[in-house]
């Protein structure tokens, strides 16, 4: 026992020494321009995506009264199940088009509270090999395939450089609860030509999201990367299409009528768009994916009672209920990160929208 622990200490010490000698290593990656040329968005698809962005803007500005529904897996990890979900969703979107505008969650980057799998873009082989070159390729390929199904796509933009590789495929983006307060993300949003939702902070604070909207509407000059992958001074114009996403916080959910009213009052006070999206998952479902339909029901009731601020909702949904079991073989259509609502329940919940 003593020997094992001595060996363990020696190994750890040599690892630390090695890391101190080379604290950072690098490998070149293809530039955004190279990847976009390899996997291009043609003129017809680009026009389609622009139409989707405009529809989302219209919903968020109250010109289109349909409910915006952003639904899909917590994270994409397997192109086959993502495409199966996408095919089903595209069919449902066409059926429900007069009441809802459906956008697919296509998340390839995951923010972690501490550490964990960071998404398909970072670790596409799911084995810690962190083959980002393949991750960029597979992620863009999958998003392109999903967009070709006619689906508007939504993702969380976590690393500002990822936006340069994927931004042209997106109709909506989120800045997550863990990054809403970051100046770098606010600068990035200032240069995006698409609607962007800032989530409330993990502590439930909506002030940071209001501040984020106030920052992103302005032009910024900042450090970044140009399309050829060179370090560049970027000048961004400011984004007029930002809004709040309520996702609950450490003190519990914030989707109820009082919280929604308080949030819209705060947004109006700060001169921000009072119309918002509510995430039915995360702290709003207490991380129980099967509670999402009840949250949605409550939001629909608020709308029916005249609450016009609720422009959209978000669901974490996959082919099957729940998530992969720890250490068990991967199951098709089951979330690899947070638990999701399965397809049948998702379909039923969306078909019930009046
Ligand atoms: O939506 C996904 C998770 O809630 C988020 O990535 C944080 O995950 P973690 O707390 O498991 O790291
Ligand atoms: C991580 C996510 O959300 P949040 O930033 O609200 O935790 C997510 O939607 O995947």
From TrEMBL:
GO cellular component: cytoplasm
Protein's job: Stereospecific condensation of phosphoenolpyruvate (PEP) and D-erythrose-4-phosphate (E4P) giving rise to 3-deoxy-D-arabino-heptulosonate-7-phosphate (DAHP).
Class of this enzyme: transferase
Reaction catalysed by this enzyme: D-erythrose 4-phosphate + phosphoenolpyruvate + H2O = 7-phospho-2-dehydro-3-deoxy-D-arabino-heptonate + phosphate
Boundaries of every DAHP synthetase I/KDSA domain copy: 54-348
UniProt-listed GO biological process terms: amino acid biosynthetic process; aromatic amino acid family biosynthetic process; chorismate biosynthetic process
SUPFAM superfamilies from the UniProt entry: Aldolase
Gene Ontology terms, MF aspect: 3-deoxy-7-phosphoheptulonate synthase activity; identical protein binding
Family named by the database record: Belongs to the class-I DAHP synthase family.
EC number: 2.5.1.54
Protein name: Phospho-2-dehydro-3-deoxyheptonate aldolase
One Pfam family, short name: DAHP_synth_1
Keyword terms: Amino-acid biosynthesis, Aromatic amino acid biosynthesis, Transferase
Pathway: Metabolic intermediate biosynthesis; chorismate biosynthesis; chorismate from D-erythrose 4-phosphate and phosphoenolpyruvate: step 1/7
Gene3D superfamilies, A to Z: Aldolase class I
Tree of life domain: Bacteria
InterPro entries: Aldolase_TIM (IPR013785), DAHP1/KDSA (IPR006218), DAHP_synth_1 (IPR006219)
């Amino acid at each position: 026992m003593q020997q094992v622990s001595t060996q363990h200490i020696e190994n750890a010490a040599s690892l630390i020494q090695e890391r101190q000698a080379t604290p950072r290593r690098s490998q070149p990656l293809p530039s955004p321009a190279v990847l976009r040329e390899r996997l291009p968005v043609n003129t017809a698809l680009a026009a389609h995506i622009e139409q989707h962005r405009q529809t989302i803007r219209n919903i968020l500005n109250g010109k289109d009264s349909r409910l915006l529904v952003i639904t899909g897996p917590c994270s994409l990890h397997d192109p086959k199940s993502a495409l199966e979900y996408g095919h089903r969703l595209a069919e449902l979107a066409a059926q429900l088009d007069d009441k809802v505008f459906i956008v697919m969650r296509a998340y390839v980057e995951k923010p972690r509270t501490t550490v964990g799998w960071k998404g398909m873009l970072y670790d596409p082989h799911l084995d810690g090999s962190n083959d980002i070159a393949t991750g960029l390729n597979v992620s863009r390929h999958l998003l392109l395939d999903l967009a070709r199904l006619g689906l508007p796509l939504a993702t969380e933009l976590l690393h500002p450089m990822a936006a340069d590789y994927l931004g042209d495929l997106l109709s909506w983006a989120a800045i997550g609860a863990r990054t809403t307060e970051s100046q770098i993300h606010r600068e990035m949003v200032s240069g995006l030509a698409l609607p962007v939702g800032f989530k409330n902070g993990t502590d439930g604070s909506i002030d940071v999201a209001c501040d984020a909207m106030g920052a992103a509407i302005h032009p910024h000059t900042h450090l970044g990367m140009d399309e050829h992958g060179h370090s560049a001074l970027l000048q961004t114009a400011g984004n007029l299409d930002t809004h709040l996403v309520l996702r609950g916080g450490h003190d519990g959910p914030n989707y109820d009528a009082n919280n929604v009213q308080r949030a819209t009052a705060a947004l109006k006070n700060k001169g921000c768009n009072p119309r918002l999206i509510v995430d039915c998952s995360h702290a709003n479902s207490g991380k129980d994916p099967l509670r999402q339909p009840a949250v949605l029901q409550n939001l629909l009731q608020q709308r029916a009672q005249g609450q016009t601020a609720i422009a959209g909702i978000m669901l974490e949904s996959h082919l099957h209920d729940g998530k992969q079991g720890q250490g068990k073989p991967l199951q098709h259509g089951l979330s690899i990160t947070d638990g999701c609502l399965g397809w049948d329940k998702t379909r039923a919940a969306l078909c019930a929208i009046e």
